[in-house]
Amino acid sequence: MEREIIFKEIILSDNPTIIDVGSYDGNSSCDLLKIFPNASIYAFEIDERSIELFKKNPKTKDIVLTTAAVSNVDGEIKFYRSDSETRRHNDNEDSWSASSSTVKPKEHLSLFKDITFYESVTVPSIKLDTWFKDTPLDIIDLAWVDVNGAEKNFIEGAVNTLNNKVKYLHIEFSEIELYEGSLTLKNILKELPLFEEIAIFDFFGNFGNVLLKNTKL
Known about the structure:
This protein is of the alpha/beta class.
């Protein structure tokens, strides 16, 4: 079943609250707005190249953007910037920021040889638990999380919000260690025992995305 159909069936609100963690160019947020035109969407991105793409996208004008990484740290963390001479998602891109991460690449280096990680920089970071406490939100209907192998760090900094305030979680998993410490699907479910698997998307044999439901909410 297509992701859009599933989302419409499970998210019954006409104006859901959605967070997009690791929003890149904002297109995922825009796709979610197509499904839920009255949604309130809060996006997070830290790579300045992706932020530039996000801000150039006219469809993101109603999306609230926070320029910070979302991890298990309130403060500063290392960020590993990706690049490629051949890969582009957008015609106006002059680099490749889509594989950047707050954790070091591992098997990614051998599996995607055309993508390099040429430098690490220090960037601001916030825990989702900290961010949520400072917002007027009561609930998050959907958390869309694309943090390129840093799922464990994200969960550690978000566990209270995930367990008590997030109805559905869409998150990447990897059956090989693309990035240091990246989580398998089994380990994600172990980290989040209140959540159950609804569907798997974009599975390419080694990695994909899973949609999880909070059985408590």
